[in-house]
């Protein structure tokens, strides 16, 4: 694989819609996603069920998914308590969001920057206490990194400062998240360069962008050109952020996979099987709208994906 597509639909997608997907259907979705070649899935969030009843079964879904061989099971945690639950359930990767806009942090997590960073320190310490081989990968996610619906502009220097603070607190890595869809390809490149120069290239490998203003794939391509290798997306573009008004629209996994495969970059994902996952999710969610162009248009005549082209030993971009 040349890039890692991290499917966030079961978490980011489902938390944004009112309908509650039955646990059994989530398990089938995750099984199918894995069978289609997606090797990392964010399956839920350890938030109180009162806040997000859609994700109340996260512990069960994490425990189930952790038994699928070769699948990296990711979960979001709002705080140290959530991380304890995620570790107990067997998550392989835990992500603590830190909203770069402090007003958004207070609205979303009811926490100041200092409190979230203290939580990062506690989580990192708890992970260090685990036996080797059972320690989940710990990512601090820099959400609203490109701007915020409450504060507007978020200065790049602030994002860099928070990236340094998260790494100092013991995170394995930081991630960039354009929660509000404010990023553009130039700001993506400039942000990656600034963070890399502060914390090093190994400390930032992935980005989570939204398609709120139609720039989702352009922003991914900018990040890929800059050297990032992990890209979050949601099946059918399901989801957004319920706490950032107007921030809807994850990028569509089907279109993202098509873009990379068409340009000679291996994702490891089988597009036909991915479309079958979409059909299952659509059937389960009834009239909930799914997005994306590739599933509607179909694949171009004679299209051979890079992943399935055995003549290509290495992706053109590898
Ligand atoms: Zn999202």
UniProtKB/TrEMBL annotation:
<keyword id="KW-0479">Metal-binding</keyword>
<dbReference type="InterPro" id="IPR000891">
    <property type="entry name" value="PYR_CT"/>
</dbReference>
<dbReference type="InterPro" id="IPR013785">
    <property type="entry name" value="Aldolase_TIM"/>
</dbReference>
<dbReference type="InterPro" id="IPR043594">
    <property type="entry name" value="HMGL"/>
</dbReference>
<keyword id="KW-0456">Lyase</keyword>
<protein>
    <submittedName>
        <fullName>3-hydroxy-3-methylglutaryl-CoA lyase</fullName>
    </submittedName>
</protein>
<comment type="similarity">
    <text>Belongs to the HMG-CoA lyase family.</text>
</comment>
<dbReference type="GO" id="GO:0004419">
    <property type="term" value="F:hydroxymethylglutaryl-CoA lyase activity"/>
</dbReference>
<dbReference type="GO" id="GO:0046951">
    <property type="term" value="P:ketone body biosynthetic process"/>
</dbReference>
<dbReference type="Pfam" id="PF00682">
    <property type="entry name" value="HMGL-like"/>
</dbReference>
<dbReference type="GO" id="GO:0006552">
    <property type="term" value="P:L-leucine catabolic process"/>
</dbReference>
<dbReference type="GO" id="GO:0046872">
    <property type="term" value="F:metal ion binding"/>
</dbReference>
<feature type="domain" description="Pyruvate carboxyltransferase">
    <location>
        <begin position="3"/>
        <end position="275"/>
    </location>
</feature>
């Amino acid at each position: 694989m040349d890039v890692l597509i991290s499917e966030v639909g079961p978490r980011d997608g489902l938390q944004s819609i009112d309908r509650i997907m039955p646990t059994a259907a989530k398990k089938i979705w995750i099984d199918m996603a894995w069978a289609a070649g997606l090797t990392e899935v964010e399956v839920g969030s350890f938030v109180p069920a009162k806040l997000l009843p859609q994700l109340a079964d996260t512990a069960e879904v994490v425990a189930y998914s952790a038994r699928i061989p070769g699948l990296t099971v990711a979960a979001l945690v709002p705080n140290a308590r959530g991380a304890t639950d995620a570790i107990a359930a067997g998550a392989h990767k835990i992500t603590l969001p830190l909203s770069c806009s402090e007003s958004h942090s207070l609205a979303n997590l009811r926490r100041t920057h200092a409190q979230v960073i203290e939580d990062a320190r506690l989580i990192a310490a708890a992970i260090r206490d685990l036996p080797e081989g059972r320690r989940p990968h710990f990512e601090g996610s820099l959400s609203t990194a490109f701007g915020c619906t409450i504060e507007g502009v978020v200065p790049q220097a602030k994002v860099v400062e928070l990236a340094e603070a998260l790494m100092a607190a013991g995170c394995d890595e930081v991630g960039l998240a354009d929660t509000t869809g404010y990023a553009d390809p130039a700001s993506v490149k400039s942000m990656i360069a600034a963070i890399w120069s502060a914390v090093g290239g190994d400390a930032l490998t992935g980005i989570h962008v939204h398609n709120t203003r139609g720039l989702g794939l352009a922003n991914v391509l900018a990040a890929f050109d800059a050297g990032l290798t992990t890209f979050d997306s949601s099946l059918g573009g399901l989801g957004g952020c319920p706490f950032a008004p107007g921030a809807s629209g994850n990028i569509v996994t089907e279109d993202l996979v098509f873009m990379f495969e068409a340009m000679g970059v291996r994702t490891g994902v089988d597009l036909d099987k991915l479309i079958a996952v979409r059909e299952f999710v659509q059937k389960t969610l009834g009239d909930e709208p799914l997005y994306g162009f590739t599933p509607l248009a179909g694949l171009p005549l004679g299209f051979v994906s890079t992943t399935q082209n055995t003549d290509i030993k290495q992706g053109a971009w590898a």
